[in-house]
Write a structure and sequence with these properties.
388 residues; alpha/beta; Aspartate Aminotransferase, domain 1; Aspartate Aminotransferase, domain 2; 2 domains; 8-stranded mixed β-sheet; 4-stranded antiparallel β-sheet; 16 strands
Length: 388
């Protein structure tokens, strides 16, 4: 009766079951996985509420690419970052997940492939399956810092490959695309007629400057590339459901792509008028949220490094984003580390296999977590390491 797309188990994993039981008993959990900025103790300005006191919210104008004023607000967001993006190159979506769905519809046929990074956020396989396509991984490797394994990526390309997906900076490694990597990607895309899809939702959260870093593909003039962002991270407003796709590359190619993207968007018309009308003020208000998040993430990262100094765990290098990776001693599995932390110490972290790490043993912690529970959780984690 149901589609064959649903090929995953619906059974909760051991960590989810243990967490559910803890919460059922009313136990207090130190959650070091917090990813929702609206629940992270940040100060949201009143301007966000005031942005919706606008009579334009009562008028419906079904514009497939999104209201012009909203696209102009996104263009100004890029302008503040030193990047010129014309509003006509922008198409609005309800989220980056919807953006992926649109781009997969645009670029692929059933049975085609897209290349995705490993490790990375565990979303692509689900989104690809909904479009009846497959994902093929290419590795990010760590040697004191993260980089793309370009040889492995090249070997992963087949006649069925249609696009290469980047997460820039990556979640959870926090690694940015570098200039030499982009040049090689553009060469590969030209040789194999591939598009680049760059998820840049965390790009505002760098921990420091780097002249070799590529912050966005919105300025690419070769081939065909798409940059995605949204209010979820740019303004700390995941509930507002507004994302965008910026088309880049060779002009004729991107114009053809946008024509087709607008046709797809016209089929769904999913972006709400209220958030589009409020977009300019929300993006403006989001700058104060960004600063709070950067300060929180930098402070927690500093605390993590200090807490783990002299221990048997290693904090891996991270360039930006909201997450940090802790490499644990391989005396037990990631699942065992996370379960003992939760069951014995009431500390919740994520195991590396949630993000498709290809070896043991890694834990992923959210730097968005409020400072006090983060520090308390780190103390318990250090106690566990001392006992191991």
């Amino acid at each position: 009766m149901f589609s064959s797309r649903f090929r995953w188990s619906f059974e909760p994993n051991r960590l989810s079951r243990a967490l559910e039981e803890k919460r059922r008993r009313g136990e207090s959990i130190l959650d070091l996985t917090q990813s929702n900025p609206t629940q992270a103790g940040l100060a949201y300005p009143n301007e966000i509420l005031e942005a919706f006191a606008d009579e334009r919210l009562l008028r419906y104008e079904p514009t497939p690419a999104g209201l012009r004023e909203a696209r102009e607000a996104v263009a100004r967001y890029y302008e503040r970052r030193g990047i010129a993006v014309q509003p006509d190159r922008i198409l609005l979506t309800a989220s980056t997940s919807e953006g992926y769905a649109y781009l997969f519809k645009l670029l692929t046929d059933p049975g085609d492939h897209v290349l995705i990074p490993h490790p990375s956020y565990p979303l692509f396989e689900f989104l690809a399956a909904m479009e009846s396509i497959e994902v093929r991984p290419y590795p990010l490797v760590y040697h004191g810092g993260w980089s793309m394994d370009l040889d492995a990526l090249s070997m992963a390309i087949t006649p069925k490959t249609r696009a290469i997906v980047l997460v820039n900076p990556n979640n959870p490694t926090g690694s940015y695309l570098k200039r030499h990597e982009l040049q090689e990607l553009l060469r590969l895309c030209a040789a194999h007629q591939l598009a680049l899809i760059s998820d840049e939702v965390f790009s505002d959260y760098a921990f420091g400057p780097d002249l070799e870093r590529v912050a966005t593909l919105a300025g690419v003039t070769q081939g065909l590339a798409f940059s995605m962002g949204g209010l979820s991270k740019a303004a700390g407003l995941p509930q507002m459901k507004l994302g965008w796709i910026v088309s880049a590359g060779e002009e004729q190619m991107r114009r053809r792509a946008l024509e087709r993207l607008e046709w797809i968007a016209d089929t769904y018309l999913s972006v709400g008028t209220p958030v589009q009308a409020a977009a300019a003020r929300l993006l403006g208000a989001g700058e104060s949220l960004q600063e709070q998040i950067r300060l929180r993430a930098c402070g927690n990262l500093r605390q993590l490094r200090e807490s783990m100094e002299g221990s048997s765990a290693t904090v891996l290098a991270v360039e930006g984003g909201w997450y940090a990776i802790l490499q644990m001693p391989r005396v037990r599995s990631e699942e065992d580390w996370t379960l003992e932390l939760l069951e014995r110490w009431n500390v919740l972290v994520q195991p590396g296999f949630f993000y498709d790490f290809d070896s043991e043993a890694f834990l992923v912690l959210s730097l968005l977590t409020a400072e006090a529970p983060f520090a308390h959780g780190l103390n318990r984690l250090r106690e566990l390491l001392n006992c191991a």
